[in-house]
Automatic annotation (TrEMBL):
Protein name: Amidohydrolase
Keywords on record: Hydrolase
PANTHER family registered for this protein in UniProt: METALLOPEPTIDASE, PUTATIVE (AFU_ORTHOLOGUE AFUA_6G09600)-RELATED (PTHR11014:SF63), PEPTIDASE M20 FAMILY MEMBER (PTHR11014)
Record InterPro entries: Amidohydrolase (IPR017439), Peptidase_M20 (IPR002933)
UniProt keyword Ligase present: no
Cited Pfam families: Peptidase_M20
Length: 433
């Protein structure tokens, strides 16, 4: 079965499962009326949002070069009457929406940069920046952020508290979030919660979320020996030891990422194969100098504790080996922050959206996506508890598959409506209750 059908089947299975259990739980209290008003507003602005998204798509900008994009964002936020801060950690922009009533503070983050790609675009509104394309969907993220800003601004008189809209540059190189924080972002704003989304291959109309980490953890382990005239045996021994920690069959179904969307094996199944794994996703790199032998590789796990205990076990095995006298160090040379969703907020926000838009629309994930992928939203979450949602963006009937970074990446723009509706309602509920 190809990935396309797997994801489609997953969506249908989940829909049937949850419809059967819960039904479409439209909120019947007076609360639903405010969300009806929000939905009407989304309908009114939807066409203009699609135009904005296409404009970003036609003029994509690489990490660190988001000058035009940030100008457009600034102009839009100013047109809504927001206080706007620009040039935060590069081309970062922050729009501040103050509700008419006193209350708490929440932040919404959207990333705005595009990627290098020479592969021709699959849509009519093609990129006019040579070699650059929005194939990670950040044009959609930026647009959803602006859409939520617009919709919540229209309810300013009913809004308790403050919403900060953070438009972050340089996500693709994992630098923008840190740069905004280093530039003092959280010195002048103190949100109690922070949220973000990423478009994914789930079908448009759905969101998916996992408590804790939706993506795996990746570190790089580095083993250093004194150089000897028998480097080869040290290299073989170290590779063998590190390889022995991998707990996934080399030719098993784990490696076929089409299975991520499989209803039994995939992320949305409690029986998923994408949990409790430890893998060596890359080849070993060996460097030999006059004095030193360096052996390094990436290690990938669904669980940070496994990575911590791996390093301790590896060090122990090497210090107890025949090569112990020549061992200099066993360290992680690079650790990347991993998106880590706050458990309580994941539960609360999933329930809010399920209550208003239907339980079938929120796909709970039990597994974590393997491989060296992530989002530097993680650095915001190091400071502020928050949740990172996956926004379905595919339309399988039309062959539109929103698989980020894939050459044929495309988006069903209906997901902009879903994103703006669900998360405008969610922020409103989190602030007002
Ligand atoms: Zn990306
Ligand atoms: Zn991305």
């Amino acid at each position: 079965m190809n990935p396309k059908n797997r994801w489609k089947q997953l969506a249908l299975t989940t829909q049937i499962l949850f419809c059967g259990l819960v039904g479409f739980a439209q909120n019947s209290s007076g609360e639903s009326s405010i969300h009806k008003v929000l939905q009407q507003r989304v309908d009114e602005v939807f066409d203009s949002l699609v135009k904005i998204r296409r404009d970003f798509h036609v003029y994509p900008e690489l990490s660190g070069q988001e000058k035009r994009t940030s100008k457009k964002i600034e102009a839009y936020l100013l047109s809504l009457g927001f206080e706007v801060k620009t040039n935060v950690g590069g081309y970062g922009v922050v729009g501040i929406l103050k509700g008419d009533k006193q209350g708490r503070q929440i932040a919404w983050r959207a990333d705005i940069d595009a990627m290098p790609s020479d592969i021709p675009d699959v849509v009519d509104f093609k990129s006019k920046t040579e070699g650059v394309r929005h194939i990670c969907g950040h044009d959609v993220h930026t647009t959803v952020g602006l859409g939520i800003a617009n919709v919540l601004a229209s309810q300013k008189e009913n809004l308790k508290g403050t919403v900060y809209f953070i438009f972050q540059p340089s996500e693709e190189n994992y630098q923008g979030a840190k740069a905004m924080i280093d530039d003092g972002l959280f010195d002048w704003m103190k949100p109690e919660e922070i949220y973000a989304l990423h478009v994914t291959a789930f079908p448009a109309g759905f969101i998916a979320v996992r408590s804790q980490n939706p993506f795996s953890h990746t570190n790089h382990v580095k083993v250093s020996f004194k150089a000897s005239n028998d480097n080869a045996s040290r290299i073989n021994f170290t590779k063998k030891i590190i390889g022995s920690f991998q707990n996934v069959e080399p030719d098993g179904p784990f490696w076929n990422l089409a299975n991520l969307g499989d209803p039994q094996l995939g992320l949305s199944s409690p029986e998923t194969i994408y949990k409790n794994y430890f893998t060596i996703p890359t080849d070993f790199v060996v460097k030999e100098t006059e004095n030193e032998l360096l052996i390094s590789t990436a290690v990938n796990s669904s669980n940070q504790k496994q990575l911590d205990s791996f390093l301790i076990s590896l060090r122990k095995k090497l210090t107890e080996s025949a090569y112990a006298d020549d061992l200099i160090s066993v360290t992680y040379s690079y650790e990347k922050a991993t998106v880590m969703n706050d458990e309580l907020l994941t539960q609360k926000t999933s329930k809010i959206i399920a209550d208003i838009y239907g339980a079938s629309k929120v796909i709970p994930l039990y597994g974590t996506v393997p491989g060296d992928i992530g989002d530097d939203f993680a650095y915001f979450q190091n400071t502020i508890p928050g949740v990172y949602f996956l926004l379905g963006g595919s339309d399988f009937e039309r062959g539109v598959i929103a698989d980020p970074h894939s050459p044929n990446f495309a988006v069903d723009e209906g997901c902009i409506k879903t994103g703006v509706q669900f998360f405008s309602s969610m922020i409103m509920e989190r602030l007002n209750h």
